[in-house]
Design brief:
4% of the residues lie in helices and 42% in strands. It is mostly beta strands. Residues 210-314 form the Pirin C-terminal domain.
Length: 350
C-alpha cells in the first residue's frame, strides 16, 4: 500500500491557473455577456467603469479584454509556443497572418503552432440580440522545445463532432465522461493527431489534455501516466466536492497530482464535478518569456521583438485589427491555401 499523498501540491483557482512544464499558461474565461447591441457588440451603457482596451474587470460578470466594442483580443503576435483553445460555450472568431479564418465554439478546439511567428486575433461576437451570450473557454499555452521554436506556423481545428468522448460506468452505474483532446486513454490512442511540430506529436512526450465530468457519486480510476517523468495537473473547477484517492477536496483547486500511479476520483457532492487535466513529459529547457514571445534566452527574446518590428510576422491581411465573420450562426474554418470546412451550426448558446 502506497503512503505517498496523491495530491503533491495545490493552490486555489484564480483567473490564470498554475501550470507545470511542458505547459506554460492556462486561462479560464467564463463571461456572462448580455444580449448584443445588434452589431455583435456589448451595449454601450455596459462600458461605464471599465478601462476600455484593457478590461479584465469581470464587472457585471464579464470582461471586454482588449476589445473596444466586441469583446476579445484584437490582432497580436506570438512566437515559440502553441495555443490550444477549448470553447465550452459561445463563439470565437479567429483571423491570422497566414490568411486563415474560423468561427468555432460549443465544444470545438483550435490548435495553433506559433513557431517562428504569427499574428492572430480572437474576437467574441455576440450573436444573440434577444438573449444573453454566455462565453466559456480555456486557453492553454504549450511550450515548444528549442529545436521547434522556429518552425513554420500551423493552424488546425478539432471540431466538436470529431473529438472522442469516452464514457465509463462504475459498479453503481454512475457515469464518468472523458473528452480526449490530446493523448491516449484506455490503452489506445484516441485523440486527433496534434500539429506535426508540436511537443504533443513527439512519441515519448506523454501529453494529454482531457476534460472530465463525473455524475454525483461517480467513481473513476484514472490510469497512471505512461512516462516515468510525466507531470500531471488536475483542475477542479465545477462541483461541490470530490476526493482524489481518498483525499478530500472541498474547494476548487489546481492540483499537482501523482502521475505514476492509478488514482481513484470520486464525486462526493450532489452536483456534477468537472475537471481539466493537463499532462506531459517536461521539456526541461530554460524558458525566457516576454509577453507573447516564449524562447530559451533573453537574446532570442530581443531577436523576436526585432523580427516582429521588421517583418510583422508576415503582415496583417485583414482590413480591421479585430475582424469578425458576420452575424450568421455558422461554424467554419478557412485554411491557408483556401481549403475550407463548413459545419452545421450548433445552438446559439452552446
Amino acid at each position: 500500500m502506497t503512503t505517498t499523498h496523491p495530491i503533491l501540491e495545490s493552490a486555489p483557482l484564480g483567473p490564470r491557473w498554475p501550470c507545470l512544464d511542458p505547459f506554460l499558461f492556462c486561462a479560464h474565461h467564463d463571461d456572462s455577456y448580455p444580449a448584443s447591441d445588434g452589431k455583435m457588440g456589448v451595449q454601450a451603457v455596459e462600458f461605464e467603469g471599465r478601462e476600455m482596451g484593457s478590461d479584465f474587470s469581470a464587472k457585471d460578470g464579464f470582461s471586454m479584454y482588449h476589445g473596444e466594442q466586441i469583446p476579445g483580443f484584437p490582432g497580436h503576435p506570438h512566437r515559440g509556443f502553441e495555443t490550444v483553445t477549448l470553447v465550452r460555450k459561445g463563439r470565437i472568431d479567429h483571423a491570422d497572418s497566414l490568411g486563415a479564418a474560423a468561427r468555432f465554439g460549443g465544444g470545438d478546439v483550435q490548435w495553433l503552432t506559433a513557431g517562428k511567428g504569427i499574428q492572430h486575433s480572437e474576437m467574441f461576437p455576440l450573436l444573440n440580440s434577444d438573449q444573453p451570450n454566455p462565453l466559456e473557454l480555456f486557453q492553454i499555452w504549450l511550450n515548444l522545445p528549442a529545436r521547434n521554436k522556429m518552425v513554420e506556423p500551423h493552424f488546425t481545428m478539432f471540431w466538436n463532432e470529431q473529438i472522442p468522448r469516452l464514457s465509463f460506468g462504475d459498479a453503481a452505474g454512475r457515469k464518468t465522461t472523458v473528452t480526449v483532446v490530446a493523448g491516449s486513454l484506455d490503452g489506445a490512442d484516441k485523440a486527433l493527431p496534434p500539429p506535426p511540430e508540436s511537443w504533443a506529436s513527439q512519441a515519448d512526450s506523454d501529453v494529454a489534455i482531457w476534460t472530465l465530468a463525473l455524475e454525483p457519486g461517480a467513481r473513476w480510476t484514472m490510469p497512471k501516466a505512461a512516462g516515468a517523468e510525466t507531470h500531471r495537473m488536475l483542475y477542479f473547477f465545477v462541483g461541490q466536492s470530490m476526493s482524489v484517492d481518498g483525499e478530500a477536496v472541498n474547494e476548487h483547486l489546481a492540483m499537482h497530482i501523482a502521475a505514476q500511479r492509478d488514482l481513484e476520483l470520486v464525486n462526493t457532492g450532489k452536483d456534477t464535478v468537472e475537471l481539466l487535466l493537463l499532462q506531459g513529459k517536461p521539456i526541461g529547457e530554460t524558458v525566457a518569456q516576454y509577453g507573447p514571445f516564449v524562447m530559451n534566452t533573453q537574446q532570442e527574446i530581443m531577436q523576436a521583438m526585432q523580427d516582429y518590428r521588421r517583418t510583422q510576422f508576415g503582415g496583417w491581411p485583414w482590413k480591421d485589427n479585430d475582424p469578425v465573420h458576420g452575424a450568421e450562426n455558422r461554424r467554419f474554418a478557412r485554411y491557408p491555401g483556401a481549403t475550407e470546412d463548413d459545419l452545421p451550426p450548433l445552438a446559439a448558446t452552446a
